[in-house]
Amino acid sequence: MYCDFNKEEPIVTKTFWSQIANQAKKEKRPFFSMAPMEAVSNTVFRQVIAHASAPDIFFSEFVYAKGITDPTTKFPVDGRLYIDSREKTYPVVQLWGDVPEDFENGALALKDKGFKAIDINTGCPDKTVIKNHGGTFLIRNPEKIDGIVTAAKNSGLAVSIKTRLGYSKLTEYKEWIPHLLNQHVELLTVHLRTKMEMSKVPAHFEVIDDLIKMRDEISPDTLLQINGDIPDFQAGVDLAKKHPGLDGIMIGRGVFANPFAFEKVPQEHPLNELLNLLRLQLDLFDDFSQHYDVPRFPSLKRFFKIYARPELGATDLRNEMMNAKSTDEVRQILDDFQNK
């Protein structure tokens, strides 16, 4: 099922992920996704990125598996599953936790809502998630994965896994990744760092070929996607060409440096274009807020650096927006700046 960019092959069985991979393969490239990012990859920001230049597929924010069917949990779903009517495709919903029944029940509920795919989070390094037996907690408790995957597959949805190379040592991937490949999910996404490394060291591109070899030997029908230090579309294409057998590229923090990261043909984007993207995000945020009480306005401030960029002479503008108290106040600041 993996993509070879140098030769034509028959189209494989059209599962959710193979359809995405095969469509990209027709263009002789890997498929691209935007990473699941807490308080970032919600319906608002997904629409902003889609407007700028969309990936092949989006992943949702982290969703506590039990919270989908039990609103009394301490990690409620709130607006994480809200899909704006302007979104063209449902995102892959990333679930975290460690109880198989929660994954099965949550996935079945998602299926009823129209979602097509779920992703099992075994890579989040957040302390709260780990303390509550999710994310990289599962790297240290690999025996739990088998039941979780089996339960998730019972829903009939496409099941994938996102992980890291290990918890504390890079060499852990030599046992951990084969364990995941033996689950025979449709897609495995590997962030090329350990939990302890966070994002403090360069991604370990040197292990990509070893990961491909493991996949080919253990589960050749599993698509392999990598994540970490890939800034944009062209960098992802170049990396896939260097590592034949790599199927997908996931970009996360790259969208903060460039909201046009998925643009197939790089172009120059002036400051006014970026600020108009911010205006779109403000409008979408206000629409979203009519449906849910969260997120609050301060959550928007982390995005201002995407648009008001120092290299474009917008440092003072960004500082001024950071002191704003509402979306209307930000719009007024933008009006004053753009109408000078």
From TrEMBL:
<dbReference type="InterPro" id="IPR013785">
    <property type="entry name" value="Aldolase_TIM"/>
</dbReference>
<feature type="binding site">
    <location>
        <begin position="252"/>
        <end position="253"/>
    </location>
    <ligand>
        <name>FMN</name>
    </ligand>
</feature>
<keyword id="KW-0285">Flavoprotein</keyword>
<protein>
    <recommendedName>
        <fullName>tRNA-dihydrouridine synthase</fullName>
        <ecNumber>1.3.1.-</ecNumber>
    </recommendedName>
</protein>
<comment type="similarity">
    <text>Belongs to the dus family.</text>
</comment>
<dbReference type="GO" id="GO:0050660">
    <property type="term" value="F:flavin adenine dinucleotide binding"/>
</dbReference>
<feature type="binding site">
    <location>
        <position position="162"/>
    </location>
    <ligand>
        <name>FMN</name>
    </ligand>
</feature>
<feature type="binding site">
    <location>
        <position position="94"/>
    </location>
    <ligand>
        <name>FMN</name>
    </ligand>
</feature>
<keyword id="KW-0819">tRNA processing</keyword>
<dbReference type="Pfam" id="PF01207">
    <property type="entry name" value="Dus"/>
</dbReference>
<feature type="domain" description="DUS-like FMN-binding">
    <location>
        <begin position="34"/>
        <end position="333"/>
    </location>
</feature>
<feature type="active site" description="Proton donor">
    <location>
        <position position="124"/>
    </location>
</feature>
<keyword id="KW-0547">Nucleotide-binding</keyword>
<comment type="function">
    <text>Catalyzes the synthesis of 5,6-dihydrouridine (D), a modified base found in the D-loop of most tRNAs, via the reduction of the C5-C6 double bond in target uridines.</text>
</comment>
<dbReference type="GO" id="GO:0017150">
    <property type="term" value="F:tRNA dihydrouridine synthase activity"/>
</dbReference>
<keyword id="KW-0288">FMN</keyword>
<dbReference type="InterPro" id="IPR001269">
    <property type="entry name" value="DUS_fam"/>
</dbReference>
<feature type="binding site">
    <location>
        <position position="191"/>
    </location>
    <ligand>
        <name>FMN</name>
    </ligand>
</feature>
<dbReference type="InterPro" id="IPR035587">
    <property type="entry name" value="DUS-like_FMN-bd"/>
</dbReference>
<keyword id="KW-0560">Oxidoreductase</keyword>
